[in-house]
Amino acid sequence: MTKQKNMSVLVYTESEKGKFKKTALEVASYAKAVANQLGTTVTAISVNANDTAELGKYGVDKILNVSDSSLEAFNAKSYAAVIVQAAKQVDAKAVIVSSSADSKYLAPILAVNLDAGYASNVVEVPSTTSPFTVKRTAFTNKAFNLTTINTPIKIVGVSNNSFGLVEANGNASTEDFSPVLPNTEVNIESIDKASDKVTIADAEIVVSAGRGMKGPENWGMIEELAEVLGAATACSKPVSDLGWRPHAEHVGQTGKPVASNLYIAIGISGAIQHLAGINASKVKVVVNTDPEAPFFKAADYGVVGDAFEVVPQLIEKLKAFKASNT
Amino acid sequence: MKILVCISHVPDTTSKINFTDNDSKFDTNGVQFVINPNDEFGLTRAMWFKEKQGASVDVINVGGTDTEPTLRKALAIGADAAIRINTEAKDGYQVAKELAKVAKDGSYDLVIAGRESIDYNGAMVPGMLATLLDANFVTNCIKLEIEGTKATASREIDGGKETVTTSLPLVVGGQKGLVNESDLRIPNMRGIMMARKKPLTVLEPTTTINETTSVKFEKPEPKGNVKLVDADNLDELVSLLHNEAKVI
Ligand SMILES: Cc1cc2nc3c(=O)[nH]c(=O)nc-3n(C[C@H](O)[C@H](O)[C@H](O)COP(=O)(O)OP(=O)(O)OC[C@H]3O[C@@H](n4cnc5c(N)ncnc54)[C@H](O)[C@@H]3O)c2cc1C
Ligand SMILES: Nc1ncnc2c1ncn2[C@@H]1O[C@H](COP(=O)(O)O)[C@@H](O)[C@H]1O
């Protein structure tokens, strides 16, 4: 197929402190698959990343690289302006973003500014590209919806961990890109973020605990289990309501969504509102004293047992496993 | 201050999700509808502004006649007036365009929507609405204070939160945190009686073009049975996670 010169799939590759996030590599991989379907190339737009060459390994052909100290902290309006200008420059037919909090903030702004239809929480590559039809989750993971995007430009928000990383052995060229930035009218006063912890959105493994843990003083073993696995920690709603854990850890239908590769639920009953928010996770493990707990119906692996005995043992077993696997 | 609260009418969180008409439509049979939880937090915050700082609060929904009980509930909670735009919107973009017209015509200072609706989970209406209105926009909003035309808001970000300052006109995508859960209000008898007398205006839609079309729905594959591992044999769990599930 002949490639049209000025037409591309544009992917927004997020970075933090100069390093690409894992989701950036995932959306790059996804963009490559879409570009193959459309017979075109992938252009990435990257803001303040140090080593852009890494994107070549995930199928990116060209990188528009923005270095601008005023974009150090994320600002939706400015970042949207950057992406809109990049989309125009490369005549983007599709714009691919992740499902991070920042990308979900940006995408609707892009949609209006590019007159483009937007599908969020997309879990697969388009089933057809004419009409451009994607599968997205709906009803908080209780169903899927096939959606056709009818506009010339399509915006796709890819659900985290739904596509994975696909390596391609390509090389990416890098071009400096200097967009015109708008005045920001939403100004950041302070950011309060634990920088040494894996976030729920980025994590491949999430260790989550519920009211079965009895009290906040017992979370040491949950944190230790998470540390051994390189996982993020999460909790059920009552646990954050009771103030045992910070609100940012609350997952479920009314909390943060989880789409990790592995979700370990300890002392969580598995109420429908909890399950809805975490069901997009690929493999679910439950530890609960009550064999009748509804979580056992949703889980892939289960241990009927007391968390206070099971978790410390599991930590030891995992440590031994890691020691023998490295 | 004139506040408009966007109300999405959604199935209760415990609803069984089924489809009809060759899986093209959501089956509302036996489903109880509620105010979208994220919007309920927003509405409650709006009531706080009304009672503590003086504001008018209108609620709006884009939907068919079946959404009127949900709007009446918002009136019973304390909103002053309700607007329904009479169309079953095809996507969030269409909803945003309809809302934008009303927000502009009514010169609202503050529009409170939810971070996302729990039915379609689009997380697109508030951002589109703000952009169409050229208003400031803060989503995942967990705290909102307003003094004159200045606003201070906190929003949840991946791994923490940030605090921003901005000004009206403003659109927020609210969520849990905006008010304490214990402050959410259940309509009382007096509120319900008063709500019957409050205005509910029905407007006809002005947009027709659809950027996206829903083709059909699918339900996830039924899951296989859970594999139980003995609490005394956790080596097996580690081995299953490594060799079978390949997640560690
Ligand atoms: C509108 C609405 C929205 C909601 N949204 C959410 C949401 O987003 N997220 C969410 O999580 N919930 C949500 N909920 C709440 C949900 O319905 C449940 O109440 C909640 O998930 C229960 O939390 P839990 O499993 O930690 O506690 P519980 O239901 O109290 O369960 C504790 C579990 O721990 C087990 N256990 C006890 N001791 C031990 C032990 N020593 N070892 C191992 N297991 C033990 C028990 O057998 C039990 O199954 C929502 C509810 C409503 C009405
Ligand atoms: N049909 C609707 N009518 C009024 N407001 C809506 C409607 N749909 C969505 N909204 C608002 O937009 C928010 C986000 O919805 P969504 O973009 O669909 O996830 C909801 O929480 C509501 O505040």
Describe the SSE topology.
The complex is a heterodimer of chains A (326) and B (248).
Chain A: E1 8-13, E2 15-16, E3 19-20, H1 22-38, E4 41-47, E5 62-66, H2 76-89, E6 92-97, H3 101-113, E7 117-122, E8 128-129, E9 132-138, E10 143-149, E11 154-158, E12 173-176, E13 187-193, E14 205-209, H4 220-229, E15 232-235, H5 237-241, E16 262-266, H6 272-278, E17 283-288, H7 295-298, E18 301-304, H8 307-324
Parallel strand pairs in A: 1-4, 1-6, 4-5, 5-12, 6-11, 7-11, 14-15, 14-16, 16-17, 17-18
Antiparallel strand pairs in A: 2-3, 8-9, 9-10
Helix pairs in contact in A: 2-3, 4-8
Chain B: E1 2-6, E2 9-11, E3 19-20, E4 25-26, E5 33-35, H1 37-53, E6 56-62, H2 68-77, E7 81-85, H3 92-105, E8 110-114, H4 125-133, E9 136-147, E10 150-157, E11 160-167, E12 170-174, H5 189-197, E13 200-203, E14 212-218, E15 227-228, H6 234-244
Parallel strand pairs in B: 1-6, 1-8, 6-7, 7-13, 8-12, 9-12
Antiparallel strand pairs in B: 2-5, 3-4, 9-10, 10-11
Helix pairs in contact in B: 2-5, 3-4
Adenosine monophosphate (AMP) binds next to helix 1, strand 6, helix 3, strand 8 and helix 4 of chain B.
